[in-house]
Design goal:
The chain is mostly beta strands and 335 residues long. It has no helices and 30 strands. It starts with 6 loop residues before the first strand and ends with a strand.
Length: 335
């Protein structure tokens, strides 16, 4: 059976959630980097996936108004549904598991609720989730009328960080014996930024602003150290995913609108300097991942996962894309 970094799992939108995908798709990476289909499992709008750190379990948010979350077997012959239930809010868009495999955090974009599920020894949901509703708004009346939780990241000190696009905040929670709001409260970022996804490297946080098109750098005390535009193109840009390269030398950002992947290097003090910007191989790059010496980009509106080779950290087209309906997440399978 094929497993580990040679396998990718793709989630996306299905007809019930505004897309044309089928659910979960499992593919194998060939030696050239090309993708070959292995299995499909029907699921209603599994728009983001997360893996248990030790067990062969993959979690999916089911992005609909009455949000759902599901656990599947991480089986390359076809993921099987193990458990499902309500996400604790509406339109969940992201999930993350803490390094110990104890907690699963779900960001509900629609109403801003953060749901934290305890995971049992089998990796399945243990009881009802702990729910943390959002509050507040931002200066953009169209996009920030209320809270919109967008991404969960488990950081150092048993702290859970959640971007809130609707309120220009990074919400913080402690995740010890029980999850609870952090005693220091949320972090406030630039007004109208619309924080979406973030990454961490060497004591610095890098946060992509979906609404203002910037990537901002913060220290561990959440003091802003600088900001760069994520694209050199004119016109609207809705940043989606950002990620530090596995070797720590680059930061990548996917730009929706310009339909590019931007590459940044790091300065000595952790700042960002542009390296290059390349086409994403499709339309509306919703998410990407790096596996081996290739980058795989989930292009939601062109129904494909593009295959880009990496040479000295810079992506370039590397053969035909893998066709799949409305992809929104692509992740390497568990080792």
């Amino acid at each position: 059976m094929t497993s580990g970094n040679d396998v990718l799992y793709i989630g996306g939108y299905t007809p019930a959630t505004g897309g044309n995908g089928t659910g979960l798709t499992v593919v194998r990476r060939e030696g050239s980097g090309a993708l070959k289909a292995l299995a499909e499992t029907a699921a209603p709008g599994p728009s983001f996936l997360a893996f248990h750190p030790r067990l062969p379990v993959v979690y999916a948010v089911l992005e609909c108004e009455e949000g759902g979350v599901a656990a599947f077997s991480a089986d390359t012959e076809g993921p099987a549904l193990l458990a499902d239930g309500a996400s604790g809010g509406s339109y969940p868009c992201h999930a993350a598991v803490d390094p110990s495999g104890t907690w699963l955090s779900v960001a509900n974009y629609g109403d801003g609720t953060v749901a934290v599920f305890r995971l049992g020894s089998s990796g399945l949901f243990d009881g009802r989730p702990r729910l943390f509703p959002g509050e507040g708004h931002g200066p953009d009346p169209a996009r920030q009328a209320g809270p919109h939780a967008h991404q969960s990241v488990f950081g150092p000190g048993r702290t859970l960080y959640v971007t809130d696009l609707g309120t220009d905040r990074i919400r913080r929670f402690t995740v010890g014996a029980e999850p609870a709001p952090h005693p220091d409260g949320p972090v406030t970022v630039a007004p109208g930024m619309g924080p979406r996804h973030m990454a961490r490297r060497d004591g610095r946080w890098y946060v992509g602003g979906e609404l203002d098109g910037t990537i901002r750098v913060y220290d561990d005390g959440w003091r802003e150290l600088g900001a760069v535009r994520a694209t050199g193109s004119d016109g609207p840009n809705l940043i989606s995913h950002i990620e530090v390269s596995p070797d720590g030398r680059h930061l990548y950002a996917a730009n929706r609108g310009p339909d590019t992947v931007a590459v940044f290097g790091f300065t000595g003090d952790g700042g960002l300097t542009p390296v290059t910007e390349v086409g994403c191989g499709g339309l509306w790059p919703r998410h990407f991942t790096v596996a081996g010496d290739h980058m795989y980009v989930a292009n939601q509106r062109s129904d494909n996962v593009a295959v880009l080779s990496l040479r000295d950290g810079v992506p370039a087209p590397a053969g035909p894309a893998f066709e799949v309906g409305s992809p929104s997440c692509v992740l390497p399978g568990p080792a």
